[in-house]
Amino acid sequence: MRRSLFLLACVCVVPGNASLPLHPASIEPNDNRQPAGELRDGVLTLALVAAPGAWRPEAERGLAREAYAFGVEGAGLSIPGPLIRVPAGAEVRVAVRNAISGATLIVHGLHERGSEPRPLEVPDGERRVASFRATSPGTYHYWATTTGAQLIQQRHGAETQLVGAFIVEAPGERRDDHVYVISVEEGPESVPASRPLFAAVVNGRSWPHTTAGRATVGDTVRMRWINASGRPHPMHLHGFYFQVRSRGTPARDTLYDPSQTRLAATELMTAGGTMTFDWVPDRPGNWLVHCHMVAHISPGLRSGAGGHADHRKIANHALDGMAGLVVAWRIEPRAATPDAVEAPRRRVRLIADEVPGLYGEQPGMGFILSGDRLAQLPDTVTIPGPPLVLARGEPVEIAVVNQLAEPTSIHWHAMELESFYDGVSGWSGYGTRVSPHVAPGDSFLVRFTPPRAGTFIYHTHFNEEIQLESGMYGPLIVLEPGARLDPELDRTWIISQTGPAVGGTAPVALNGSVAPHLELTAGRTYRIRLINIHVNQPLIFELTDEAPVVWRALAKDGADLPPHQATPRAARQPIGVGETYDFELAPAAPGPLRISARNLVGRVRLEGTVRVRPPD
Ligand SMILES: [Cu+2]
Known about the structure:
By secondary structure, the chain is mainly β. It is built from two helices and 47 strands. The protein is globular and about 75 Å long.
């Protein structure tokens, strides 16, 4: 199928699929606030249609794309399709009419979870009914294919938008949650990783056209996320932690009991995956929830953008330098909010600079870190960036100095700080006080007081495709007051890429090396801070021996695990980009250990070794 774009206003439609009508119906976005169908006496009755239409991921501003979509019979099509939402125990009767000519429609997900999946086969032009009792509370979705795809990740092109949310409420559960459905339209290339992405949307719209959420300090905001795309998405909330309440697959949702809930600032959802989380914003301002894979928030997703945007010409990074899987939240103060920023007790300078020709013709971009005395200044950047070590409760002022040839802005990933210092230029802040980007030759003073000790990341939030790939990231480590970082026992293993990718995914490196060789000593107890800040590569990280290697989980995203979850486990950790994990590792015997990091379909992306020396 060729990439087909057409102007909605244009009468001469260029169909990419034979079944697209000459004057396609307009497909509207669906914010999932209104359940569809009629619920009466415990029975939900709903009549759906699946049909082709014209969809505008970027609202009135952008071009229209052809898509197949669901709609309520007689009421128009939407992306995502109508929200099916019932209390647990309800009987669901959903009729589906197939108005996609020349294709048999197979609808997945309209069945009780825990029972045998029953795909609904609807021949061309006909109508079939799925009837079942919804008894398992959770966050689910339904999706359909015209090509016989067995899994959601096998779809591409126009049918990728045939999806809708399906929520089964537990008794007494609140109903004012926000349901977000992620869908991605991709091209048909046989290797999924090299498929071009045409649109990445949340509830049918690409940033900045996604629906913004609004809340007030102290509210509890519940979000249900459904990854109805064929790609993994590590979803990151700026400036806060959220409490994870459920994680699910298309087949099953696991609702966490209080002993299973945990904090996260970034949570990886694989294709078809779901999660529910609660967030209590305690600071006002402009915030974002977004996928941390740079390809899924790239301005190149904008129709007509043609790949890369020239960031030197972008006035507002937030609105013009990102697209795709981003959702805004504006938090209003509950009362007059006191200035949360304390006078700094510590000052550091973080200088962004370039190293010409580090990656062939491309420069490296990285950081120099110093105290407030210029005499301490090292002369060259390191990639990954030097560890920025702070103390819990100690107010810090960081002067971000930009010596690059282009603007930048630095984000303090998972740090609970004031919005103005969060690093999304053109967005972070409140009211008229919005943070600027740091122009070349300029600087910006960032102030915050780390409220918890843990493993965080500092990284560029500007022109990420170039700046992040070129080296602008480093570990941000917060220690308990009075503690000192012992570089022998406290190890950071930071996964990233090695320079700008040439037409694909950049090679994976650990601590800057594509073949890392690390050394530990038997009998010692180490803290391993595992960070993934690769631009686009979620990984399954593994440490192996002939016998299973066991480590003890300590923290995720900088937040300590509750004590009963801080348990020993096999040294194997899926890690999305933007996630951090802390482990305690105590190798008992000398010998070699093997490091491997595979992508989510099992291909090895990084191999290395750890030599465990005999005890002294
Ligand atoms: Cu993503």
